[in-house]
Amino acid sequence: MATPHISAEKGEFAKTVLMPGDPLRAKFIAETFLQDAVLVNNVRGIQGYTGTYKGTKVSVMASGMGMPSMGIYSYELFSFYDVENIIRIGSAGAFNDKLQLRDIVAGMGASTTSNFGAQYEIAGTLCNLADYELLTAAVDSAKELGQDLKVGNILSSDTFYDDRPNNMENWTKMGILCVEMEAAALYMNAARLGKRALALLTISDKPLTGEETTAEERQNTFTQMMEIALEAAIKMDKK
Ligand SMILES: O=P(O)(O)O[C@H]1O[C@H](CO)[C@@H](O)[C@H]1O
Ligand SMILES: O=c1cc[nH]c(=O)[nH]1
Fold first, then answer.
1. What is the DSSP letter of 102?
2. Where are the domains of the chain?
3. The Nucleoside phosphorylase domain covers which part of the protein (predicted)?
4. Which label site among 88, 123, 154, 208 has the fewest CB atoms less than 10 Å from its CB?
């Protein structure tokens, strides 16, 4: 079987898929952390691998950038490949000035500027939430690994370059920790399809101070977040 965007056969993805935006971050995770990793998708260069981590079958596949792209890949993995859990492992810009480069954030909620949710024709505003058990698995894993994990509301933005002069300040006033571009669509697909989702994010840049990591660092060095996600995948496999 294949979908318009994924060439893998049914059964070739694990119950839990880690999803970075960047295909080369997916490759790095497969090569660094998975045993016997097999490339199961490369349509449009969206690399997907399945292997084992400490004996547990785990997959990693890129989502591409932005909500339309995440919307397609998470929908197809959940609907056609029996994937139960997707953990996004992304980069994010700090809004809260207490966040430092490389801090790790779990998006308990994903507020958004996107119109992705209009398709559900809900007469109100849906809260886009992480799955509680997946979030708990990540929090517990971070503690076991001795990693600090900040948990809170994040912004999934349709824009990387945003023209509104007070955009960051206005979201920050409402307690938003950081900005990225995919989690809200992932959370909405998971809610609609009865699946579990979580976004883990590493702070890659601080717009307030101009501090930033390089593209190569975003691809290959956010290993603490990757390990939290992999340990959470082991916990979820036992449920
Ligand atoms: O590093 P990734 O996972 O791609 O995540 C962030 O980086 C991209 C923008 O540079 C967007 O996809 C944003 O969500
Ligand atoms: O979406 C993103 C990701 C990283 N940094 C940002 O400022 N925005």
1. T
2. 16-237
3. 16-228
4. 123
So what's the pLDDT on residue 3?
Answer: 94
Choose which residue among 180, 187, 213, 214 to substitute to test ligand 1 binding: the one with the highest number of ligand atoms within 8 A of its C-beta: 180
Please determine, for residue 239, whether its predicted confidence score (pLDDT) is greater than 90: no
Query: Which ligand is nearest to the Cα of residue 200, counting in written order?
Result: 1
pLDDT level of residue 238 (50, 70, 90 thresholds) = confident
Give residue 65 CA to ligand 1 midpoint distance, Å: 6
The identity of residue 140, as a single letter, is D
Which of helix, strand or coil describes residue 97? coil
Strand partners, 39: 49
Task: Using the predicted structure, report yes or no on whether residue 148 has a pLDDT greater than 90.
Answer: yes
Tell me the pTM. Answer: 0.98
Question: How many CA atoms does the CB half-sphere of 137 hold within 13 Å?
Answer: 26
Taking residues 180-201, report their average pLDDT. 98
DSSP assignments along 161-218, one per residue:
S---TTHHHHHHHTT--EEESSHHHHHHHHHHHT-EEEEEEEEEEETTTTEE--HHHH
Q: Are strands 56-61 and 16-19 parallel, antiparallel or unpaired?
A: parallel
Closest CA to 186 of 51, 12, 9, 21: 21
Q: Give the whole-angstrom CA distance, residue 215 versus residue 204.
A: 9
pLDDT tens per residue, range 99-117: 999 999 999 999 999 999 9
* Dist. CA 120–CA 225, nearest whole Å: 32
Return the DSSP state at 119.
G
Provide the CATH topology of domain 16-237.
Rossmann fold (3.40.50)
Structure-block tokens of residue 56? 């547990």
